[in-house]
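Justification of resources, computational component.

The compute hours requested in this renewal are based largely on the per-chain cost of generating structure records like the one below. Each record pairs the submitted sequence with a full structure-token output. That output is archived, and it is also reused by downstream analysis tasks.
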Amino acid sequence: MIYNIAIDGPAGAGKSTIARRVAKELSFIYVDTGAMYRAMAFYLLREGVDRNNTELIGDTCQNAEISIEYQDGEQIVLLNGENVNAYLRTEEVGNMASVSSAVPRVREKLLSLQRKLAKDMSVVMDGRDIGTTILPDADVKIYLTASSLPRARRRYLELQEKGETCNLDEIQKDIEERDQRDMNREISPLRQADDAVLVDSSDLTIEQVVDRILEIFRSKTEKEVSHES
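The structure output for this chain reads:
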């Protein structure tokens, strides 16, 4: 049987880390839609596209082919055949992704691939609009959030570990501004699906969040099996 788990939430809530671990625990495929949008953003930056020129963004994105493969258990994001994993987590790419992901033609470019993956295999997919737009019929929907300061601290520590100079207040401000853009954009704004379970990770460890989501999934699937029998 094929199952789909959708995890939505704001930037820095830990969606990617949590989704990977949940997928591993269940032996599902992890589909990082954010990485796909970041790959598109990286392509747009590489092409020198102005982030304010939505028409040019829509035109240029048509030349980008983005796919996901697994090599030795690691997810590889391919941009026109090139492994671009190393370029996807910079602040510049993240900010461009927040802007370009609101462009309808960018979303259309990636939507069909994401849905096909979910149709063919059991997946855990995370992003901003998985449960509301991409997989509205997902078996389990999670809205994973946290207040802006814990999210900023996590990002601050990530950047410090990479040896990058950063400022906690600026990171928190960027996160809050990105939240506003994501929640107020015209196309597929960030919001909690009506049937999604809210999980606040502000005061929880990664393991506690993973256990909570697994509990939600198993409770739902056990009820379905019981109902069918």
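Residues 19 and 169 are 27 Å apart (CA to CA). The mean pLDDT is 91.
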